[in-house]
Amino acid sequence: MNRRKLSLTSKFILSVLTIILIMLIAVTYYSPAGTAITRTLANYTVVPLQNGLNRLGGWMFGAHQEQKNLDEARAQIDQLESEIAALKEDKLKYETDLKELEEMRSLMEMKKTYSQYDTVGASVIASSGSNWFYKFTIDKGSNDGLELNMNVLSGGGLVGYLSSVGPDSSVVTAIINDSTSVSAMSSDTKDICVISGDLNLIQENRLRLTMADRDSEMKEDSLIVTSQISDKYLSGIPVGYVTEISTDADKLSKSGYITPVVDFEHLGHVLIIKAVKKTE
């Protein structure tokens, strides 16, 4: 019963609205006054609705355009970040290649300096695990004519000696190692001294100088090279520069510190002199 009543009511409302619409159309068609009435109704209903729809459409278009611009900006940022990453990678590769080129040039210069000896270049393939190369492995061995105690150079100075030699690789013990010492001398005055390895001091990029004669004329900035009385190292190879020297408390000798010629924190390539120091 209620459903039937509701259905009748809906049909009644629809019929009333239909009649009103027909009357408005008739009034508009047959009466000039009807046109005015319709226009007034439109001004209060259709026009505001149309303006609202226009504003809504404009807002939706603007929002769409802003989202589009945002997406384009994000895409440009992503592209720029990719280009920056590629440039950083290229820069790193360039710097690595440049360093390797500089090392190769240095090796060539050393080959010329020690042209009286047969030499061979080698690459560092493993290290002791420390930041400092106090013991490391190179990619040359007995198959390349290497022998124990051959001198190893880099950067224009003494690195150390071959302490172990295999068929295709060798181990280098550097002069910064605690277990090593070098019989050395001042390149200008020929005053003898001893340079000792010290893994603590090398953190400050220094090595210890001892046993210089009290009358030694060594001074700061003097170049220290291997001496002719060394039992392991060929004579005249640069070791470092004096940074500090003073007379010891016993007044019998002088001691101090040197800065090594070689950069023991960054070693990639070395030069081996294929000759062993002969001692009588």
UniProtKB/TrEMBL annotation:
<dbReference type="Pfam" id="PF04085">
    <property type="entry name" value="MreC"/>
</dbReference>
<keyword id="KW-0133">Cell shape</keyword>
<dbReference type="InterPro" id="IPR042175">
    <property type="entry name" value="Cell/Rod_MreC_2"/>
</dbReference>
<keyword id="KW-0175">Coiled coil</keyword>
<dbReference type="InterPro" id="IPR007221">
    <property type="entry name" value="MreC"/>
</dbReference>
<keyword id="KW-0472">Membrane</keyword>
<protein>
    <recommendedName>
        <fullName>Cell shape-determining protein MreC</fullName>
    </recommendedName>
</protein>
<feature type="domain" description="Rod shape-determining protein MreC beta-barrel core">
    <location>
        <begin position="124"/>
        <end position="274"/>
    </location>
</feature>
<keyword id="KW-1133">Transmembrane helix</keyword>
<keyword id="KW-0812">Transmembrane</keyword>
<dbReference type="GO" id="GO:0008360">
    <property type="term" value="P:regulation of cell shape"/>
</dbReference>
<feature type="transmembrane region" description="Helical">
    <location>
        <begin position="12"/>
        <end position="31"/>
    </location>
</feature>
<dbReference type="GO" id="GO:0005886">
    <property type="term" value="C:plasma membrane"/>
</dbReference>
<dbReference type="InterPro" id="IPR055342">
    <property type="entry name" value="MreC_beta-barrel_core"/>
</dbReference>
<feature type="coiled-coil region">
    <location>
        <begin position="63"/>
        <end position="111"/>
    </location>
</feature>
<comment type="function">
    <text>Involved in formation and maintenance of cell shape.</text>
</comment>
<dbReference type="InterPro" id="IPR042177">
    <property type="entry name" value="Cell/Rod_1"/>
</dbReference>
<comment type="similarity">
    <text>Belongs to the MreC family.</text>
</comment>
